[in-house]
Design brief:
Blueprint (H helix, E strand, L loop, with lengths): L3 E3 L8 E7 L2 E8 L2 E6 L10 H9 L4 E9 L17 H7 L4 H10 L3 E9 L11 H15 L6 E3 L6 H9 L5 E8 L12 E4 L3 E12 L6 E9 L5 E7 L4 H11 L22 H4 L2 E2 L5 E6 L2 E2 L2 E2 L4 E5 L11 H5 L1
Parallel strand pairs: 1-9, 6-7
Antiparallel strand pairs: 2-8, 3-4, 3-5, 5-6, 8-9, 10-11, 10-13, 10-14, 11-12, 14-17, 15-16
């Protein structure tokens, strides 16, 4: 069941609200001693999360189908000092690895959790998808009370019918949660449909130092600005990029930035680190004197980085670069 992106939280007696977790959507199937994990697109996730499979097999319930989110708490010591920790989407991506030995190692070093928010088949093997959410949630809570009490690996997602609390949750998004999910209480579970679920994300802004840039792949003009934030030790860490510029703006940026090229740019975490997806071209970047500050719009910050590319809003010539720190994100 999918969610439709909307700009406002829907109100009414027919809605309830849950946090939108920053992870992999997952259906968990158990049939006696067999457990299968399936992604939103129908692909298997079973081999990538052996610790979740083992925990689901330890439950006394011998059969069920759960809908939920796989997440990995951000425990990395590499996260810049001063950066708030939450869930690490990068750690999840690292799990999708062909080497079983690598997956096993990561499952011990960075164990995942499974946050459940729907029950589609109960412990007696009875299908529940045709029931309205109001009844499925009651059955899910009964399942959690019976089988998940004090379980730190598989846990029940909170929910509320209080719109005020849902707005409070939304105001704190950007670290652990990715927004709010609103669900229709009167509808059954409709696979692939979006009419019964809506998602709301809160867009935020941050002031960042331009610590470098990358040239566009097709021309010798600036393609993206590389963004940095200072930690409490005074190190400038690369935290993301913005590339929302048209051709004329890219030409202007090139004229503005090329005279400022000078090392080191970033003094903490740097762009262009090893990656399965990076190429020689995407790893190349030009360092800049740390003189320029920009304000960008973002939707989520985790693991010391903006989760997606940010949107350029404006230059901030009046702001001192040293004031662009991680602390501003925790206060937002």
């Amino acid at each position: 069941m999918e969610a439709l992106l909307v700009s406002e939280i829907p109100e009414g007696d027919n809605w309830e609200y849950e946090p939108k977790w920053d992870g992999f959507r997952c259906l968990a199937f158990r049939d006696d001693r067999k457990v299968e994990l399936q992604s939103k697109s129908g692909q298997t996730l079973t081999r990538y999360f052996p610790e979740i499979v083992a925990e689901l097999l330890r439950l006394k319930a011998k059969q069920f189908v759960l809908d939920g989110e796989l997440v990995i708490p951000d425990r990395t010591e590499a996260a810049p000092r001063g950066a708030a920790l939450g869930f690490s989407f990068d750690a999840l991506l690292q799990r999708i690895h062909p080497a079983a030995s690598r997956v096993t190692k990561l499952s011990v070093e960075t164990p995942a959790r499974f946050i459940v928010f729907d029950l589609l088949v109960d412990d007696a093997g009875k299908p529940l998808a045709q029931l309205p959410l109001s009844k499925r949630r009651v059955k899910l809570e009964g399942f959690a009370k019976k089988y998940l009490a004090k379980n730190e690996t598989v846990e029940l997602s909170p929910k509320t019918d209080n719109i005020k609390l849902a707005r409070e949750w939304l105001s704190t998004t950007g670290i652990k949660i990715d927004g709010i999910i609103a669900k229709r209480l009167d509808l059954p579970y409709r696979s692939g449909e979006r009419d019964g679920m809506q998602k709301v994300k809160r867009m935020r802004t941050a002031d960042c130092v331009v610590g470098g840039f990358r040239y566009a792949s097709s021309d010798k003009v600036v393609g993206s600005l590389l963004l940095g934030l200072y930690d409490d030790a005074g190190l400038l860490h690369h935290v993301g990029y913005t590339s929302s510029f048209n051709a004329a703006q890219k030409k202007e940026l090139t004229e503005k930035l090329e005279p400022l090229i000078a090392p080191p740019g970033f003094t903490g975490n740097k762009p262009g680190g090893p990656s399965r997806w990076s190429t020689k071209k995407t790893s190349e970047w030009e360092p800049l004197k740390t003189k320029l500050v920009v304000e960008v719009q973002y939707d989520h910050f985790t693991g010391g980085r903006f989760r997606h590319g940010t949107r350029f809003l404006r230059w901030r010539p009046e702001k001192k670069p040293k004031l662009c720190d991680f602390e501003q994100l925790s206060k937002d």
